[in-house]
Every structure is written in C-alpha cells, then in structure tokens.
Design a protein that fits this description.
461 residues, alpha+beta, Aminopeptidase, Alpha-Beta Plaits, 2 domains, eight-stranded mixed sheet, four-stranded antiparallel sheet, 15 helices, 17 strands, binds zinc ion
C-alpha cells in the first residue's frame, strides 16, 4: 500500500489526493459485474436499461450525465466532468453492446459475471465493458477528488458497435455532435499485450484498414452437365481464386506500420526480431522481401497489416446438379491500406487473375476515407508518459488495425481518435473475445483503472 501511494504521488506530482487503488479496483470490478449482467447482446442490444443504471450511479457523485434512447430500447450515455475550458475536451468512448454466445459452449453462465481464478468471466468483460467500467470509475474519482482539469472529460457509452454503430457513434455524430466534440478521443481498438505477467508493448491504434467487398463474377454459356465445356464459369472462377491465393498483394508500409514493426522488433525473440527489423527498416530490399514472407507465414495479422488483403468469403452459383451454370460469383472481403483506392486495387486484381471471363465488380464508397490520427498529439505523448511509469520497458507503438472500428467515424468527423484498451491482455485473453469463456484478469482491471486515471490527469490536468 505504501508503494502504491508513493507511485500515485510520483505520477500526480503530489497534486490531488492520492487514490486508494485497492478500493478503486474493487469498485471498478463491481461495476464491471453489473455491466456484464445487463444482457446487451446485439441484436437487439437493449442497452437502455444499462445506460440508465450508469446515469444513476454517476449521479451519486454529482456527475452530470444523459441517457439517450436513439431508437426503441437502444441506449447511449454522455457524461461530462467539467474542466476550466482552457483546453478542448477529451472524449472517452466505450461500447456497451456485446456479441452473442454459443449456447452450451461456456463453462460458466456468460451473463452472471462470475469471479474466479483471478478473472471476471462473462460476455463483454474484455469487449468492451471492461473499458466502460474503468472509464466510469475514472469519472467518479475525478469528481470525488475534485480534480482541477483544463479540459472537460467526456464519457460516451455507446450502443450498436457490434452491428455497425448506426444507433451508437454514428447517431451521436449526426445528432449530438457538439456534446461529444473533443480535441481527441480514446476508444477500443488498441491493446496492451501482456506476456509472462508483464506488459510487453502498448499498441495504440491510430489508423485502420478500410473494408471493401468486391465480387468476382464469372460468366459462360450454360449447358447440359453431360457435355463438359472448357468455358464453364466455375473453372474460370477456380483459376482466378487460385491466382489470388498464390499472389499476395505487394508489401506497402506506412508511417504507422513501419513504427509498429520496428517497435515489435525490440520485443520479439530471434530470429523473428531480426526479420521485423529488416522489414521495417527496408534498407536492404531483398532482405526486407524475405523477411516479409517469413513474417507473413508465421503471423496472419502482421501479413494483413503489410498489404491490401483479400479473403474470399461467399461462393454463389449453380442451380442443378446436371446444369452448367451461366454465371457464378465469389465475394472477396478486402481490407485496403489507408490511402488506397478501390478502383486501383480492382485494376491490380484484374491483372492478377488473368481471366477475361471473370469481371471484378466493386463499388466506390460514398463516404470519404477517415484520416489516420497523428502520432505527435498531446494524447499520444501522454500515453507514452504514463506507460513509462506503469509499464517500464514496454514500447508504445502506433498500431493500424486490420478490422474497422467506430474510431474511423470519429476521425472522419474531425475528432482524432486513438484505440487503447487500458487493461493488459494475454493472447489467450484476446482469443476469447467474441469467443467462448471471455474473461478479464482482475489484476488487469486494477492496472487499467490506474492507467486511465493517470492518463486523464496527464492530458487534461
Ligand atoms: Zn468491441
């Protein structure tokens, strides 16, 4: 306990009252359990009872909050701790809807929030109710300690993230833009990876790949199955897919991924560390290409981070067992790097597949691409400073997620947003997200609340 107080005082520069982290962690865990027990599986979400409960909880500490119902049963919450207004607000976002569960595959009740073996078990414990619970606790601590802030700290608990965010972040941007306006925001999407009981690195998501669904449509002449035709479109589609599978898109690093891979080189064992170094430096192009191939074989996420990616996901075609179809198609779920245009990618794809009978069909999205968040902002630097105190030796690296998050919407709306769930997670913890037996270490909750509180003080104090 003495050590904790010293740490808190050192971090806070002896300013506001030191926090009793043990009590704060216990309270955060209790909050998390309550959040998990609200069954907010999306669809239908039904988040309104949850956000209404949070509003009441915050009111106990005199914190102003509004529970909003953007559609029947759906719920968002906006809460605010006021600063002196000398700097623009800091926004913290956490979604409170969760994905469904596979019946009969859990070893505990997924909505009971069981605490055992050093974990809180339950759907949403990691994604993203843990972050919500930490943020709620931070607001309470700020209010109770009457911390003087230069910026308002805004908390937005949002619905509908798992089904596209139409009623959540999108709705808030369209209907409550001024209430969530901020100089920058913190959201899920980045992580503190834990190995051997310690934070290994902090990946701060500042960019993301953009999803596009392209289709390959193969056309031919229909006929009787008893008379094979060389122009059977199924054969043409199969050849096209085979070429896609054997010709990965070229490696293209950007500022974020270059810094990410170079940071990873510091923490990974040999020879992998050297591969990452060769890839990120790019000094020797032949070596970098060899390294990219070796890394791609071992880590499919890294493979996707270094190039535009393609996953065939749905095959459609054929009407009867004895009829050669005239048209078959496959959906390609593609994730393009920031700055890449889908029309250029489609042109590249057409050259790769070399099949005149196969057309690459795509749509140009209506909304412009979201910009990446700059890595020289006050928030990014504050994350680095807190990490130096709380996770010494663990590098802070910018991170580009292969999947999309609500942050893209916020960035497009002019709020540079960074992804970082402040609780350290092992690869095992991560593998359970959206899977069975999702669970969050209670020690990570303790770390998370402390990290987030210090981050707020650094950036807004
Ligand atoms: Zn999530």
């Amino acid at each position: 306990m003495i050590l904790e107080l010293i740490l808190a005082t050192a971090l806070l520069g002896g300013d506001p009252e030191p926090v009793d982290w043990r009590t704060a962690a216990t309270e955060t865990i209790e909050t998390l359990k309550r959040l998990v027990r609200f069954k907010t599986v999306n669809p239908p979400g039904s988040e309104f009872p949850l956000v209404s409960w949070v509003k009441e909880e915050l009111a106990k500490d005199g914190i102003e909050a509004e529970a909003i119902q953007p559609a029947e049963g759906r719920g968002n919450l906006i809460a605010r701790i006021r600063g002196d207004g000398s700097k623009r607000p800091f926004l913290i976002v956490a979604h409170v809807d969760v994905v469904g569960i596979e019946e009969g595959k859990w070893t505990v009740d997924p909505f009971e929030a069981v605490e055992k073996d050093g974990f809180i078990w339950g759907r949403g414990a990691v994604d993203d109710k843990g972050m919500a619970a930490c943020a709620i606790e931070v607001l309470r601590l700020l209010a109770r300690n009457k911390v003087k802030l230069k910026r308002d700290v805004i908390l937005a608990l949002t619905c509908d993230e798992e089904s596209g965010g139409q009623y959540g972040v999108k709705w808030l941007i369209e209907n409550r833009r001024e209430q969530i306006d901020a100089e920058f925001g913190l959201n899920e999407g980045g992580k503190i990876i834990q190995r051997n009981g310690r934070p290994l690195y902090l990946g701060v998501q500042n960019a993301e790949k953009r999803p596009h669904n392209l289709r390959l449509v193969a056309r031919g002449i229909s006929g009787h199955g008893s008379v094979p035709r060389p122009d059977n479109p199924i054969l043409a589609l199969a050849r096209a897919l085979n070429r896609i599978g054997t010709n990965p898109a070229p490696v293209m690093l950007n500022e974020t991924t270059r810094k990410f891979f170079s940071g990873m080189a510091e923490v990974e064992d040999e020879p992998y560390g050297s591969f990452l170094k060769a890839l990120s430096s790019g000094a020797d192009p032949a070596l970098a290409a060899h390294a990219a191939a070796a890394i791609s074989e071992r880590d499919y996420t890294f493979a996707s981070m270094m190039r535009n990616s393609i996953s065939p996901t749905i095959l459609k075609g054929g009407i009867r067992t004895n009829v050669i179809p005239s048209e078959v198609e496959v959906n390609l779920n593609c994730r393009l790097l920031p700055g890449e245009k889908v029309e250029d990618f489609a042109r590249w794809l057409t050259e790769v597949i070399q099949e005149p009978a196969v057309e690459v069909v795509y749509e140009i999205p209506e909304e412009p691409e979201a910009p990446s968040s700059p890595i020289d902002s006050d928030l990014f630097r504050a994350i680095e400073a807190v990490a130096e105190e709380m996770a010494p030796g663990a590098p802070v690296v910018p991170y580009m997620s292969t999947g999309g998050t609500d942050s893209a919407r916020l960035r497009r709306a002019g709020i540079p947003t960074y992804g970082l769930v402040p609780m350290p997670l092992t690869l095992d913890d991560l593998s359970r997200m959206h899977g069975n037996d999702e669970r969050l270490q209670t020690d990570s909750v303790r770390f998370g609340i402390e990290f987030l509180y210090h981050l707020v003080l650094k950036v807004a104090g």
